[in-house]
Design brief:
By secondary structure, this protein is α+β, with helices and mostly antiparallel strands. It has 22 helices and 30 strands. The chain is globular.
Length: 704
């Protein structure tokens, strides 16, 4: 395809494209951006397609699509950008949901299906409400059930060894119904060990009846559980809420099954085995008029909504899935999720305060406009190509003259990476985080961002740089306004300042339900040790106890002492090189292994880089050892290291090495987690005193 249209990309967008989205291979030229010295963090140093070749590929040979994509008015979800045009078996959807059955065979069937989805670039939500509670009797084996929390640990173990399509960290969601016997264990599963479930968001499926009781009877079980949820979310950001009855009222095909769970970010309620294709319009590009009299360009927005709907439907026809169950479910409903990013950019360009009735009214108007235009375009597509097969079901109840090609057309996704590719200064429907902030990428790279609208300061989530804070109640009003006309759901973080209380979180839950939201997530600034966005003024407020200046990265100097260690584990020999600071503490890790292919070597390299960034960001050897301790996979067993004679994996060896050499005395003496569960009580198995023992002192199971 020959074309001269090229996008106007920011340096951040170019860095993201080179690192994550452009197809790499020996047939491509050396990255031209790596020859420049003015792009912070640009270190891909690879051979990949050019940016023009990339836009040719993702436009599927359609000049209209290419013009829309290169204008950066619209982009599809990341798996489409990663994979389209690179072969027949390429998966293009981002969002998946599976129901986990109450059997070991069923659990591991889902493990395999989810692993394949993650391998090809998708994120997965799991509904685990069908599982028996932990410790319940299993008649077929005379054993006891794992329970939902331990089942999620199995999915965590799978995801922790993978990245989505080799490009980004795996993303997962766990959802449990509020009436499940293990609901308290689920609510608190991330209180003490949030990194044990690092790839997971978790949400409680709350019914209308639950919320009614929780808000009218202060002494009820429901009120107590909602309070516990609020306290945990105040500490860690989890759990979120999924209002399952509200979501089911918006189910476009109830005759096919319930939408009892969501994708990892919560914006796509789905049936079992369903997936959805997403894409987003950059609202900041649809403001015209003069600086004194800005206005929404409704006609141009209409044209883009129509074209973007066609594009996403075409992507479905190019799509491939790694399991026939997914293929069948997607073909039946043909769900699309057209959303927006840069909402706060549009408000800033129009000089409208985020925390204002005018902004909320415009949100509802835009949501309705996009929904109507996308629906009408889907009707036109149905006339040309046929409607969604779901409407042919014998139990379907739908007007035969209004059957669209797609059972859903709209949703609001968080748009992290694609929003940055389009140059949006705000993502999804969030307010600007701060006037200046530091953004941390998944590989540890950080770069500075500054919001600039011609000297006009917008409201922000943090209120830095002289701007006003957006109170959390306005966050919910915006979410509800967009949800009112959105087919699927709205991904929105309700940002709260560090001094917010658990009562604030509790009130936010209730307000989200009362206002018709399908779910939501609360995040209190500073409640997690590491967060993606950190305002620069927050970094300067060292007197505030929740700010940890250790998260400013401290690389090793160009010349540094190091420790070299050679160890044999099973039939594999590892060579470790650990760079040391002047005080003798570790700050860098390189791992090489003999007789390994490129995939395993790449995984060792990735582990070394992640460990190096963690240590340079102020993480302690004890914390690193705790995160890696007890992972179990081959090679395992005896080693040639006298101090560490037996390990469950090479990663476990690293954990024990860091613990014994640089950890605290208490850490060095800890028993080793074996990555296994007790067959009697489902507790974790420890290696201690020459035996394998259950960590539960009441159980008493051991194998010596």
């Amino acid at each position: 395809m020959t074309t001269t249209a090229s996008p106007s990309l920011t340096d951040t967008a170019r860095m993201l494209l080179c690192k994550r989205y452009l197809a790499h291979g020996p047939e491509y030229p050396l990255c031209p951006e790596c020859q420049r010295n003015d792009i912070p963090g640009h270190t891909c140093e690879g051979r990949h397609e050019t940016i023009d070749q990339f836009f040719d590929r993702i436009s599927m040979g359609n000049p209209e699509y290419r013009e829309m994509l290169t204008s950066l008015d619209f982009l599809p979800n990341s798996p489409t950008l990663f994979n389209i045009g690179l072969g027949d078996q390429t998966m293009l959807s981002a969002c998946f949901k599976f129901n986990v059955p109450d059997s070991m065979d069923g659990i591991f069937d889902v493990v395999k299906r989810a692993g394949m989805v993650i391998k090809h670039g998708g994120g997965v939500g799991f509904t685990v409400s069908a599982l028996r509670p932990q410790g319940a009797l299993v008649n077929s084996t005379h054993g006891v059930a794992l329970g939902p929390v331990n089942a999620l640990a199995i999915f965590q173990e799978t995801a922790s060894r993978m990245t989505q399509g080799g490009k980004r960290d795996a993303a997962q969601m766990g959802i449990l119904h509020c009436d499940h016997p293990d609901i308290e264990r689920f609510i608190h599963m991330k209180d003490e060990e949030p990194q044990r479930y690092a790839t997971f968001n978790i949400s409680v499926a709350l019914t209308d009846d639950f919320m009614s009781r929780a808000t009218t009877d202060a002494g009820s079980r429901e009120a107590r559980l909602l309070r516990e949820m609020a306290e945990s979310a105040w500490r860690t950001g989890d759990p979120g809420v999924f209002f399952i009855d509200v979501a089911e009222r918006g189910n476009p095909t109830p005759w096919l099954g319930a939408v009892d769970g969501t994708n990892p970010c919560g914006e796509v309620p789905l049936r079992n085995n369903e997936a959805c294709n997403l894409g987003s319009l950059n609202l900041g590009h649809f403001v015209g008029g003069s600086l004194a009299e800005p206005k929404v360009e409704w006609r141009r927005l209409k044209e883009r909504v129509k074209l973007a709907t066609r594009y996403l439907d075409d992507v479905l026809d190019h799509n491939w899935f790694p399991d026939p169950l997914i293929t069948a479910a997607v073909a039946e409903t043909r769900k699309l999720g057209l959303g927006v990013t840069g909402w706060a950019d549009m408000l800033a360009l129009m000089r409208i305060r985020y925390a204002s009735d005018e902004a909320v009214e415009l949100a509802e108007k835009l949501s309705k406009f996009i929904a109507i235009e996308a629906y009408e375009e889907s009707l036109r597509l149905a006339a040309e190509k046929g409607h969604a097969p779901a409407y042919d079901h014998p139990d379907a109840s739908f007007n035969i003259n209004a059957m669209p090609r797609n059972t859903t057309r709209t949703c609001i996704a968080p748009t992290g990476s694609i929003g940055q590719l389009m140059g949006a200064q705000s993502l999804g429907i969030e307010p600007h985080f701060a006037i200046e902030n530091s953004r941390m990428m998944g590989d540890g790279t950080t770069y500075m961002e500054r919001v600039d609208f011609g000297g006009w300061l917008p409201q922000t989530a943090m209120g830095d740089g002289g701007s006003e804070v957006v109170p959390w109640g306005w966050h919910i009003r915006h979410q509800a306004a967009w949800q009112k006309h959105t087919d699927l759901a709205v991904s929105k973080t309700i940002n709260m300042p560090n001094n917010a209380t658990p009562d604030d979180v509790l009130m936010a839950y209730v307000e989200m339900w009362n206002s018709g939201c399908k779910g939501g997530t609360i995040y209190r600034d500073g409640s997690r040790d590491v967060q993606v966005l950190t305002s620069t003024s927050s970094l300067s407020r060292a007197a505030e106890p929740h700010i940890d200046l250790g998260h400013l990265r401290r690389p090793l100097p160009d010349e540094a002492q190091s420790l070299r260690r050679k160890v044999r584990i099973g039939d594999e020999t590892l060579y470790l090189h650990i760079g040391l600071y002047e005080d003798g503490k570790p700050g860098e890790l390189f791992i090489n292994a003999n007789k390994q292919g490129s995939t395993v070597a790449g995984m060792y390299d990735a582990l070394g880089r992640l460990a190096s960034h963690f240590l340079q960001l102020g993480g302690s050897p004890d914390e690193l050892a705790e995160a890696l301790r007890g992972m179990r996979f081959e090679p395992s067993g005896f080693t040639t290291d006298r101090d560490i004679p037996n390990v469950s994996s090479p990663v476990d060896y690293l954990a024990q090495l860091f613990s014994k050499r640089w950890g605290s005395e208490a850490s060095a003496s800890l028993p080793v987690l074996m990555g296994m569960f007790c067959p009697d009580c489902s507790g974790r198995i420890l290696a201690m005193e020459g035996c394998m023992k259950c960590e539960n002192p009441v159980c008493g199971w051991s194998r010596c």
